[in-house]
Amino acid sequence: MTLLVEDLPGLMSAPAALLLAEDAPALDLPLPQWRVRADGAGWRAVPERGAGGTALPLPAAPGGLLGVLSAGAPAWLADWPGDAPALLPDATALSALLAARLLGAEARLGDLAASLTTLRAEHEEGRVAMAHWLRSAGQEAPQPPTLLHADTPQAAPGLPQGLSHWRRVLPLEVAGMAAVALHLGTVSAGPGTALGVRLVAEESGRVAGAWRVPGEALGEGWLMLDLPMPAPPWRETAALEITAALAPHDVLALSMTGDAPAVQLLRARGAARFLHSPWWLEEEAGRPMPPEGVWCGFPASIWQGATRVARVPGHGQAMLEIPALPLAGFGMLRAELRLVGGSEVQAALECAGRGTGWVDAQRDGHLAMSLAVSPAAWPVAPVRVQLRALGGGGGAVEWREIRAVRGGS
Fold first, then answer.
1. pLDDT tens, 98-116?
2. How many domains does the structure of the chain reveal?
3. Judgement on whether residues 155 and 249 belong to the same structural domain of the protein
4. Cis, bond preceding 379 (omega within 30 deg of 0)
5. Cβ(327)–Cβ(394) under 8 Å?
6. What CATH number is attached to the domain comprising 214?
7. Is 101 contained in some domain?
């Protein structure tokens, strides 16, 4: 005969469960309990509490079964798969079993605590040894990195004024990457121009390296961007995100390969390679970022010291400001405001020398503006909203929300 069980997944997954003979009393304990009754030519185990559902054959002995509460051996034990469970004549026998299990669990817990202490000591010894090794390795002059990938630069026309974006996935792992190089053609740029580069682990979105190079530091040829020490051992595909911001009257041409900037990728060889990188963005390293196109909010701390509500007098002007917004890696900002108790108010969003122009408030008072972010704003920059009233009514404007997104849209 077959032993059927209602709620078989519950019985098989319970860390501790009890079977009851047909005439055994249920126990007032926080233990899942199944009562086994005769069912035609077979046997059926039904949960004492809760709905049972479809009955299924018992394929194997449940790992968390404590035993069977029964004065004698039930007939259905002959159909039990595997070794028969322990027979518990009464609650006292169950108490003894639970006490023995508790003592065993406490002993195992003590062993685990001792193992954890040993593991932590070994971990600390490993950290000390690694620190000694890094200091020792850092006494030698950095060795030239090994070239892993090199594009053939092809001349390209100068970039248009404003922002240009590229994203490129490369057939290499990011692990151990020591430097990235971009080939620049014609360059005549000043402080208003900036070039932003990020080395990203494609699968997880973690940032292995990020740089912001001001226009006055750009020159023709290969621009080498070094990591202070090689990238972590992430077994993930390397991807590059490149953003160029070109100021009026400046000239910048990036050599291309196909429709993407020409690049070189280099990896450290031998011992670790330590270099000071003047354009390195420390706060970006190791930072996980959402995929492109996902709008990110900011924590409430950005509003500390910010001007979030302003009164715009009739025919007058006012300003809202966030003093320091973390913008590294973002390509677009979106601000949402609300005009209360007024009309004919316009707003303009500004950041790092760029602005949206004047935007009218909608009839319901809603104001929304989007602005492309220049690498000149990285890593932190003030963001302002200029306000002006076209009529004599004016009004109060509240800055409701600000978000940012990677990429250029």
1. 888 889 889 999 999 999 9
2. 3
3. yes
4. yes
5. no
6. 2.60.120
7. no
